[in-house]
Amino acid sequence: MTALDRTDPEGAIAAAAKRCSNWGRWGADDVLGTLNFLDESARLAGAACIRRGAVFSLAQSFDMNGPQKGWRRRTNPVHTMLDTGTDAERGSQGFPHGLGGADDVVFMPLQASTQWDGLGHIFDHGHAWNGRRAGDVVTSDGDLVTGIETAAARIAGRGVLLDVARVVGPDGELPDGFAITTEHLEATIAAHGVTVGRGDLVCVRTGRLARARREGWNDYAGGASPGLSFTTAEWLHDTEIAGIATDTWGFEVRPNEFDDAFQPLHQVCIPNMGLFIGEMWDFDALAADCAADGVHEFFLAAAPLPVTGAVGAPVNPLAVK
Amino acid sequence: MTALDRTDPEGAIAAAAKRCSNWGRWGADDVLGTLNFLDESARLAGAACIRRGAVFSLAQSFDMNGPQKGWRRRTNPVHTMLDTGTDAERGSQGFPHGLGGADDVVFMPLQASTQWDGLGHIFDHGHAWNGRRAGDVVTSDGDLVTGIETAAARIAGRGVLLDVARVVGPDGELPDGFAITTEHLEATIAAHGVTVGRGDLVCVRTGRLARARREGWNDYAGGASPGLSFTTAEWLHDTEIAGIATDTWGFEVRPNEFDDAFQPLHQVCIPNMGLFIGEMWDFDALAADCAADGVHEFFLAAAPLPVTGAVGAPVNPLAVK
Amino acid sequence: MTALDRTDPEGAIAAAAKRCSNWGRWGADDVLGTLNFLDESARLAGAACIRRGAVFSLAQSFDMNGPQKGWRRRTNPVHTMLDTGTDAERGSQGFPHGLGGADDVVFMPLQASTQWDGLGHIFDHGHAWNGRRAGDVVTSDGDLVTGIETAAARIAGRGVLLDVARVVGPDGELPDGFAITTEHLEATIAAHGVTVGRGDLVCVRTGRLARARREGWNDYAGGASPGLSFTTAEWLHDTEIAGIATDTWGFEVRPNEFDDAFQPLHQVCIPNMGLFIGEMWDFDALAADCAADGVHEFFLAAAPLPVTGAVGAPVNPLAVK
Amino acid sequence: MTALDRTDPEGAIAAAAKRCSNWGRWGADDVLGTLNFLDESARLAGAACIRRGAVFSLAQSFDMNGPQKGWRRRTNPVHTMLDTGTDAERGSQGFPHGLGGADDVVFMPLQASTQWDGLGHIFDHGHAWNGRRAGDVVTSDGDLVTGIETAAARIAGRGVLLDVARVVGPDGELPDGFAITTEHLEATIAAHGVTVGRGDLVCVRTGRLARARREGWNDYAGGASPGLSFTTAEWLHDTEIAGIATDTWGFEVRPNEFDDAFQPLHQVCIPNMGLFIGEMWDFDALAADCAADGVHEFFLAAAPLPVTGAVGAPVNPLAVK
């Protein structure tokens, strides 16, 4: 494990970025990053995990009761009706023969609730994934190169739940500010008796969402939280996983581990490693099932909504056991 | 097959609604309708269809280049950026150590592109699915009973592509106004050598989308189109399928088959039968693959985005073969 | 002045509604309510108040830094860019000869910031202004009868600032929960040496906004606040004013004066009296000027943005002295 | 009048920009441009035009029936309800004592309907008004310098209607592609017997909107249209008017007068001259009144909705005669 110098974020980020870079690994034109690891054989390995036919949604709700408070103009999703049953029942809609209809619309930041970060979401010193200039990739017209639609038909494969909260945490929840290290990840893997490797989609449960459910959102969005340690960058790189998601707002531990930094693990993982990161997922129902039957692997279908040019996208991930 | 009296839509709709009603079939509190057919064993049957690990997205794009023209205030999705790579590269975002970010937001009718109709989308004489009063179900606050979130963790199972366009159509496309009958469906099933039954998710390809791709959207949204005949209501009911989707705007044939009617098959299927209907799906890549390998069944994961209270929801369906 | 029985809101509201009703006063088809008082001669009286050519905007800001917290799905306005100067400067917009452009879009509840309540905003026992059934007036398609566009070309006339905060309040601010009575209004009128009458647009300053500016929004939207007493209903009716606005979220005192009620003065004034009510206006700069020169009357141009069918509308009111 | 070389837009734009530049005229920090001409005395001159108390709204509608077709992601305004009278009448809103309510929300491009262009709307070779770099002014966070809120308390003054359509046009409408020259403007001024000068707000009627009303929107937004000739730049500069508006989508004649150009007069007027330009105004009712009484001057209150950082803003302009 890398020793962390809290006073040198710039140097630490640069070193990790260099160590974990995948630029050029899949050619100059690549837009998929670590999804390249999720090939047909990896997907078949996932399919082999379907044994009972049970299914779990890993999505949080998409509504006004979410955790967003306006940071970066991220509001909660606002859902409004274009037509209602009340109007239909009253008979004023104008359709023939008793037909009535309801229709609706949503306004939402694409990272308001359960989502995948796209490869255009984060930049490092003005560069995006694979070494492109940030301004060549994401303009006001959206992500012209690595828009989330490029990942529309990829993300279905073998999912592994690492319930770090249950294995490591006191009372099944990690405290805010708890940095999950490679040792914690490995201990959880050992405790679960699973393997994690090339092309897998890793789901790390911290218990932060369960706490928010019990105590209210409070500062769930952007505040203190357990999460991945900056020092896991190498593990994330060397395992050759295809993607990783947590039940927290920010994936990595908050506050971040440097005296002055903002989401430094993102800065390493997204533009340099090309890693797909999921945030605000809900593993609680799945985790209860995994704890009950001792099986922590499953087929995971988590196709992002293909909003053209999006740098992140909402998703309703399904875990099938 | 029911003979269709074009001059008596009111009577025909009432008769079909009565014949095909599932009200009470799964209890007075049911909110799932035909998704009840999609149980764990049906899901396992779907999983058994994964043989190669190949995956296909069945979603159309979500952007301003879509077919919507404003009917029922349905616009195309409007995607705007909250932060861009151009800004990040210029260095004015204020993050430390070279971090830059992009973020985005979308405004979209929930039925703007590839979607599932929820059970609160259509009413029959002021009644919603399972006999509830429309105004008790869908108000300005959304669908309080059968909101699409109730289907969040269900729709993964065995998919079957019925490429009616390729089997029946001249040149692999059905003409606008072509009503697909039970006979056409059965002929396609026979030609493909597949079975369709309880709990399946049926994908009916008409070729309408391929034509729009070639010739422009024109009146894709709401205009003339091939689609299911009103007379298929009994087949849809008796097969006990869990859901059905087409590559058209409106699922059923347009113009509708009565002299004066609006989407009469919807009126039978959604509030009376409790059937899940998908619209504006894209089967073209999948269909080419099925034609090539002769295998028309697959695992289909098609979880709607769980916007709380939605009467329809966007989806990125994944077919895995 | 009516004595207020705090335990009988239902009776008190009914009595005030009856006493102050203007139903039928301007014919069965009327959609303007008290704006009927604002005729050409009243407008000329306003024009006569322009003496220096000084102008004051009475609008609060329209942005994410506003007071909304999600009640009734009211968010703050979300403003996003469709094109930026950063993109233009970088040269990637594709316009010829060095032209660059910026464009933008807003999503906002119509009552998110400075606004007029339309006559379709509030109902009394299922009835809207002038005795119409609420469901005949405002459906999912908006206000089909009294939409704010009907008031598009009316609201310019004589404005009068009643700086109750400065006249009555300790330290120039009324405390939260302070109910402004007819006596307070009359005392302020006398102190200012102005008149208030038929067709006037009355601006009541409570100082609540100044406090929010100093101390933060806190519960500005919906929380405790000074405001009009329920007992002013008769004064509002008998003066024949055309409209009235305050610098608070809710116009009337909060908490409301009955043990169990919600905005009872609204219930009397909007559907029964047909009164135009403005909320979340900013009188602070104007009030300072009026205090300095002792002149509390002015020309007020406060045309709502004519969103067709709106039950409320944002406005940038201009006071010209 | 400048002779126009249709083959040299680059040179012509540069020459006009240099000739008409106001950079530095009001200091390096100026954000108001030509609104500096609209001082208190100019405003008093406007007030003196109020003689009858008649008022006219110069706004078009804000709804889905507008002309936008998606260019630059500009849709028509989408207005949806958060609460309705139908729900209120049905009694399910949960308010006490018979209170019911309706609320609404809008999503709209800020230049969807009647609007003012802000000074950050157009750039010339990467520079914004007063010589600032475009990327220092308008980022994804909006216009940080000349946002429309800086003009919130200015635009009330003397309006002059130049009904060029009625004076010059055959049948009271200018044909599409008709370039209004300085000579046409002067002839209209002479025919009306008015003056135009420093600080005035000039309203130029082309009749294009009347034609759209009669024949449908067709290509109103961006298509062929009468409008100001590029050659009027000097007149716009030398008259020292505060602002100018037309009843067209694009202010200047369409197609533009160069073989290859896009809105070249904008490029001169906004970033170089600092001129406020209004588009999609509706002068028809006002024009009929002016034709009837022969008076073409009035008080014009046209305060833009102060969306913080907006590069354009909707407005409901009121003309008071």
Automatic annotation (TrEMBL), chains A, B, C, D:
One of the GO biological process terms: L-tryptophan catabolic process to kynurenine
Xref: SUPFAM superfamilies: Putative cyclase (SSF102198)
Regions annotated as coiled coil: none
InterPro entries hit by this protein: KFase/CYL, KFase_sf
Pfam families xrefs: Cyclase
GO molecular function: arylformamidase activity
Name the record gives this protein: Cyclase family protein
Organism: Cryptosporangium phraense
